[in-house]
Design brief:
The chain has 847 residues and is of the alpha/beta class. The chain has a 7-stranded mixed sheet. It has a 5-stranded mixed sheet with strand order 3-4-5-6-16. α22 links the parallel β5 (465-470) and β6 (496-502). It is globular and about 100 Å long.
């Protein structure tokens, strides 16, 4: 579950409400099958939750039936399945112990009315504005409390009423367990742990285990434990399902302080609402749908109202049941409704079988569910976001004082931590060899940082040259006055002061107040040039389209102002690239990064396998690449064509696997891969090699051989052949190895691929006399790939002729396309304005 709620449009209130028509028989069958699977999970789970709360066991089945039918009909998330909630177990158990069962039903009714009111006010999304660390900490604390309490039942005892009391009584219970209950509980736990792993068994046992695993684990565990108890004739407590009686199940007004009753109703409302909405978001993302959260909240309120009136437990949406519904193939809200019908039928017709279930088996089921609520994935996520103190304090608060106190303490800790982060600033003073002083500030400079800032400034010698460099974070009025008052005094004493705001793209202030490199404050938390570095920093369950829009927003905010003048010039003058760069569509191949190129440098063609289809290739004709090549050569008049392959190419592996030769009607991919048959033939005849290392495997050898073959097939284009023969066009082969971030270029004379650095060094030695002092300067024109390709072509010669001509203008970047190099420098502003600059290397333009 996650709190990241997209702003997608709200679904219609009529979505998926009507039963399937005659044309939807397949959908109806899928809903029927899914409802049976979910009901088989819900029955033992509902009984176990009722046992853990101390409520009548029939109340669990009543809540499951009402949740399935009512929320299924009126909720806003069609595939969500609601029922008794593990997150509400501790709260409900406390209410039953304090007020009695019938008064707890009345509190459930009140919570349902509050949910209806909140849903009518359309505040569902506001209810999700809570720290994930608090939510996950609350669930983990509830899970630990449940597990400790139910461990007593598994051992043959009874819970003590609170987690602390259960912990204190646990050693005595462990010293004197009841063997029958322990056997039933251990059998249930063993089945629950092993059941999902049956498909991993070797051979036919694994195939049989996969079929068995189609039966829900909770049902299998409880059923096998029940069979074991019956077979061994063990004497222990079993499920009791009394007949429904109004004097036992109908709600009555609770007796107690009004403030306590109001707090109880608000607690049930808050926990049930947050869990239901979080589950709804998770299920919507899993099913790739957009639900109506306000309608879902109203549906949950109506279900709690009905459940309380008929004597059921409080209801909330559950990720376990909803996930099972989606994975079992549920398509519409009728899967949830039918699940409720099956639970109701089981409660009415299968009471004899249900009464055979040992309580220890249900307790073991709930114990495992409680332990699963402590998610290590959530802990890692919370720790990565520096929220672990909030999580831990919430867990301890829930275990020690209950859900209400735990959440309150966790919220207070989160508020204090947020205040600490907002007021945390670093002030570093550096003194250079010449006596100049640099004061660097990181983080928001607010009134709380004024004492620290004042002490740092007071220690600067009078008359020294000072540069105050701020990182662009918030600067409030108190800090501003402190800086400028000190500046006036220092300048009056004969000192020089420059005040610069410099946003460092490679630094971010961590929540703990430390500055670290390698990320930025944007949504990707990575540098603009390398948003792909360490994809662990991006939540993979997020909407990919949302991540894309986040990246576009970062571009508009930071990069667009820097590239706008250059793009405006290109818009006026049109594109005049000197390079055609043909490479693979692989997402890891970032051409602008490995070539150090920018807007207007490369005319790029990408396809699967960096293939150049040969004319009249049987069964594989394709003119799109030929058209792009012709446009680049004849219209844009590029002076170089580079074919670049890469390591780990899926297209080359598919060629080796014979995907293009499989029998039957060829797929578009198979037809396209037929353009690589020439590369396979060359691999058998004259495979390409590296100059300085052996190939890793046959797949890598095919990757570099394919580059050579595509250069040959380029010559089948008449325009390319003519320009090459004229000596005005070079063809260059390149290969990029992802594992080592190493580029190689093809030496046509030797027929091998050499590392770019080695070739650059050789070229520098060969032409050192002609290069002069300008060799050490970075040319501001085209990117590194253009220069590298030109150098490679100078060494290797053109593709088919022996004409070798050095075109200096291809490297120098002179003329209208040259981009001036901009270096960042600190400036002293006489008008007290603070300029904004890039990094010390100047603004980096991310293509």
């Amino acid at each position: 579950m996650t709190l990241d709620i997209s702003s997608a449009p709200i679904a219609s209130d009529t979505t998926d409400h009507a039963p399937p028509g005659p044309g939807s028989r397949i959908r109806w069958a899928q809903d029927l099958s899914a409802s049976l699977v979910v009901s088989l999970i819900a029955v033992p789970f509902s009984l176990g939750i009722a046992l853990a709360t101390g409520a009548p066991l029939a109340a669990g089945l009543a809540a499951a039936a009402v949740g399935g039918i009512v929320v299924g009909l009126f909720g806003g998330t069609p595939l969500q399945v609601s029922g008794p909630s593990a997150a509400l177990t501790v709260i409900t158990a406390g209410l039953v112990a304090q007020y009695g069962w019938q008064a707890t039903c009345a509190i459930t009714v009140a919570a349902g009315l509050l949910q209806l009111l909140l849903g009518a006010r359309r505040v569902a999304r506001t209810a999700l504005a809570v720290s994930p660390a608090i939510v996950h900490g609350m669930l983990a604390g509830v899970g630990i409390t449940i597990a400790i309490a139910q461990l007593h039942v598994v051992l043959g005892g009874s819970p003590q009423g609170s987690a602390i009391a259960d912990l204190l009584a646990l050693p005595g219970q462990l010293a004197d367990p009841r063997p029958p209950a322990l056997v039933a509980g251990a059998a249930t736990v063993a089945v629950l742990i092993c059941w999902p792993r049956l498909g991993r068994l070797p051979g036919r046992a694994g195939e049989f285990g996969t079929r068995l695993a189609a039966v829900p684990g909770p049902l299998a565990g409880v059923a096998l434990a029940t069979a074991l108890v019956v077979a061994l004739d063990l004497r222990l407590a079993h499920v009791e399902l009394p007949a429904w009686r109004p004097d036992v199940f109908l709600p009555t007004l609770p007796h107690g302080p009004l403030l306590g009753l109001l707090a109880a109703a608000l607690t049930v409302t808050a926990v049930a609402s947050v869990e239901s909405l979080l589950s709804a978001v998770a299920i919507d993302r899993m099913s790739r749908r957009t639900g109506d959260l306000d309608r879902e909240l109203r549906g949950q309120g109506l279900a709690n109202l009905v459940s309380g009136l008929v004597g059921g437990l409080p209801i909330a949406g559950g990720a376990v049941r909803g996930t099972a519904n989606v994975r079992a193939g549920g398509r519409t809200r009728w899967a949830s409704v039918l699940h409720g019908v099956w639970v109701l039928a089981a409660a009415l017709a299968l009471t004899g079988g249900l009464r055979r279930i040992p309580l220890a088996a249900l307790a073991a089921l709930v114990l495992v569910v409680g332990l699963q609520m402590v998610s290590f994935a959530h802990i890692r996520k919370v720790h990565r976001h520096r929220e672990f103190p909030v999580y831990l304090i919430t867990v301890l608060g829930v275990v020690a004082g209950g859900v209400l106190w735990g959440v309150a303490i966790g919220a207070g800790t989160a508020a204090l931590l947020a205040l600490h982060r907002l007021t945390r600033a670093h002030v570093d003073v550096e003194t250079g060899p010449d006596g100049t002083v640099t004061v660097r500030t990181h983080g928001p400079l607010t009134f709380t940082a004024v004492p620290r800032l004042g002490r740092a400034l007071a220690g600067i010698p009078a008359g020294a040259g000072v540069a105050v460099v701020h990182d662009g974070s918030f600067l409030d009025h108190a800090a501003y006055e402190t800086l400028h008052s000190w500046r006036a005094g220092h300048q009056g004493a004969g000192g020089r002061v420059s005040m610069v705001t410099r946003r460092q793209d490679d630094e971010v202030l961590d929540p703990d107040g430390t500055v670290r490199a390698g990320s930025s404050p944007g949504p990707h938390r990575c540098r603009a040039w390398t948003p792909w570095v360490g994809h662990h920093c991006i939540e993979q369950q997020e909407d990919p389209h949302g991540r894309l829009l986040d990246g576009v927003r970062v571009f508009q905010l930071h990069t667009a102002p820097l590239v706008r003048p250059e793009l405006a010039r290109l818009a006026r003058e049109g594109q005049t690239p000197s390079q055609l760069f043909l490479t693979c569509a692989d997402s890891r191949m970032v051409t602008s990064m490995i070539t150090n190129s920018g807007p207007g440098d490369l005319f790029t063609v990408r396809n699967v396998g960096n293939l150049v289809p040969a004319p009249h290739e049987p069964g594989a004709a394709d003119d799109s690449v030929a058209a792009a090549v012709q446009y680049a050569v004849e219209v844009l008049e590029v002076r170089s064509i580079t074919v670049c392959g890469h390591s780990g190419c899926g297209a080359m592996q598919a060629l080796l696997d014979g995907v293009h030769e499989r029998p039957g009607q060829p797929t578009p991919l198979a037809r396209w891969l037929r353009n690589g048959r020439g590369s396979l033939d060359r691999l058998r005849r004259v495979p390409a090699e590296f100059a300085a290392r052996p190939v890793v495997d046959v797949a890598e050898q095919l990757c570099i051989t394919n580059v050579v073959q595509q250069l040959d097939q380029l010559m089948a284009n008449p325009a390319v052949e003519r320009r090459v023969e004229e000596g005005t066009l070079r063809l260059v082969g390149m290969y990029f190895d992802f594992a080592t971030a190493q580029a190689y270029v093809l030496d046509r004379a030797a027929g091998t691929f050499s590392p770019v650095e080695a070739r650059s060094e050789n070229r520098g030695e060969d032409q050192g006399e002609d290069c002069g002092e300008d060799c050490g300067e970075e040319h501001p024109g085209n990117g590194a790939a253009a220069r590298t390709a030109a150098r490679a072509a100078d060494d290797a010669g053109s593709h088919t002729t022996g004409k070798i001509e050095h075109h200096a203008e291809a490297d120098a970047g002179t003329g209208p396309r040259a981009r001036p190099h901009t270096a960042s420098a600190e400036r002293v502003n006489e008008d007290d304005r603070i300029p904004v600059e890039g990094s010390e290397e100047g603004p980096q333009l991310a293509a």
